[in-house]
Amino acid sequence: MIPLQATRRLSTRFLAHPSVSFKRCFSQKTSSTTLQSKILPLPSSTFILVVALGLGAYSLDARSAANEYIWCPLIRFFTDAEEGHKLGINFLKSGVYPRLFSDVDDPVLKVNVFGKTLSNPVGMAAGFDKHGEVIDPLFNLGFGYVEIGSITPLPQPGNPLPRFFRLSQDEAVINRYGFNSVGHLQVLTDLKRRFTKLHVQNPNANSNSFRDEKMLAINLGKNKTGDEVDDYIKGVQNFGPYADALVINVSSPNTPGLRDLQNEAKLTNLLTKVVAERNNLEGELIDSTRKPPILVKVAPDLTEPEIKSIAQSAKDAKIDGIILSNTTIQRPVDQLITKGSIVQETGGLSGKPLKPISLKAFRILRKYTKDSDLVLVGCGGISNGKDAIEFAKAGATYIELYTAFAYKGPGLARKIKDEITDELKREGKTWMEIVGSDDK
Ligand SMILES: Cc1cc2nc3c(=O)[nH]c(=O)nc-3n(C[C@H](O)[C@H](O)[C@H](O)COP(=O)(O)O)c2cc1C
């Protein structure tokens, strides 16, 4: 409480000499100390220290609103989309990023999946950490599941620049990266180094995340001119031992012909071979009782018969799950605030405008898979707890996001977890109890 007399004295001095009073009040040591001691019970140095520590701690906390409203917009102002992406990776890689000072997941968030438990259902989707450079920082930011990739067998540069565009007013982006990848060898070398280091610290770990109740997934792509089966088989052989789940990406719109692999005959053939290869994995698997589950990642731009045939391929090949969805080639122009030629850039659109498209396709997929054990993963335009819950009720065992993280910053996973927890408690349910509850 500021004593009334001191406030009056202060305002009288300001009013009397507005041009010089600020200096008088605050630059003269004696008078400022006197004022300080009168209006606050702390000595000035302690006061400044407390304020500085408070502000410091606040801006170092990933949940700070400064990330969403100051730092992310500043990065967007000074960089183009690809530079901003690289900057984000570099901050995380060098350890210069805000932390979550407490990140305990409420038990209502627990997910039972693939015979394991995740402490929360919020995942980072493929494409943010394409080369597996920031796995641990992403877990530190609260994600329960981190998917790296897509990784191609051989290094390839991807499409020419520019290839990544922001539609900021829509909290969306369009990308046509085209599987820029450092290739299997480089990622494998880094993963092995990480594995060796963490295995020494935690020899009893039962997950490649080396975290309790978290999973590391590896997303496999194919080279532009690579073989449409062998490239994925190589991925299973190389990354199987380091993954808690392997994702077969047949839905990027930026690799010519890739989406054709979603055709029923091709997909069944590919997935059957992938599963056979996974079953052959031997050696030092982190969990000797279990081989990594196989998921296929599909597009949102599919007709009902196409979705039905994908569900059939997944069942026939006996894979473990389906991620829906990748980016869309549609441009829902009526719903976009952004206008002009940028909207028509070639590539995949992601972020908020994708959600109705992906959720609609997701509901159809659920219709054709609910008679099976296939795990469905919801992805596409998820940016808050409400979106996540919508996908869960539609049948998603867990969810993934990318674009919203780019707009909202490092506190997003924690924020979404808090929103989901609040809603679950309001409904008196757990996450697992709401999965697929729209069916009932
Ligand atoms: C810049 C960018 C790169 C992406 N790269 C990949 C990729 O390499 N492999 C993949 O399976 N998905 C990739 N995706 C798709 C995302 O994983 C996700 O499926 C899609 O963006 C929809 O989710 P979102 O709206 O939360 O971003 C990429 C997305 C973006 C925005």
From TrEMBL:
Report the subcellular localization: Membrane; Mitochondrion inner membrane
Q: Tell me, which GO biological process terms does this entry list?
A: 'de novo' pyrimidine nucleobase biosynthetic process; pyrimidine ribonucleotide biosynthetic process
Cofactor(s) the record lists: FMN
Q: Which residues form a coiled coil?
A: none
Q: What is its EC number?
A: 1.3.5.2
Q: Where is the Dihydroorotate dehydrogenase catalytic domain?
A: 109-424
InterPro entries reported for this sequence: Aldolase_TIM, DHO_dehydrogenase, Dihydroorotate_DH_2, Dihydroorotate_DH_cat, Dihydroorotate_DH_CS
Membrane topology value: Single-pass membrane protein
State where it is primarily located. Answer: membrane
Gene Ontology CC annotations of this record: mitochondrial inner membrane
PROSITE patterns from the xrefs? DHODEHASE_1, DHODEHASE_2
Any note on cofactor binding?
Binds 1 FMN per subunit.
For this UniProt record, give its keywords in alphabetical order, as a comma-separated list.
Flavoprotein, FMN, Membrane, Mitochondrion, Mitochondrion inner membrane, Oxidoreductase
In alphabetical order, the GO MF annotations are: dihydroorotate dehydrogenase (quinone) activity
Pathway listed for it? Answer: Pyrimidine metabolism; UMP biosynthesis via de novo pathway; orotate from (S)-dihydroorotate (quinone route): step 1/1
Reaction(s) catalysed by this chain, per the record, are: (S)-dihydroorotate + a quinone = orotate + a quinol
A Pfam entry, by short name? DHO_dh
Q: Does the keyword ATP-binding apply?
A: no
Q: Family membership, please give it.
A: Belongs to the dihydroorotate dehydrogenase family. Type 2 subfamily.
What PANTHER family does this protein's entry cite?
DIHYDROOROTATE DEHYDROGENASE (QUINONE), MITOCHONDRIAL (PTHR48109:SF4), DIHYDROOROTATE DEHYDROGENASE (QUINONE), MITOCHONDRIAL-RELATED (PTHR48109)
The record's annotation in NCBIfam families points to: PRK05286.1-2, PRK05286.2-5, pyrD_sub2
- What is the name of this protein? Dihydroorotate dehydrogenase (quinone), mitochondrial
Species this chain originates from:
Pichia californica
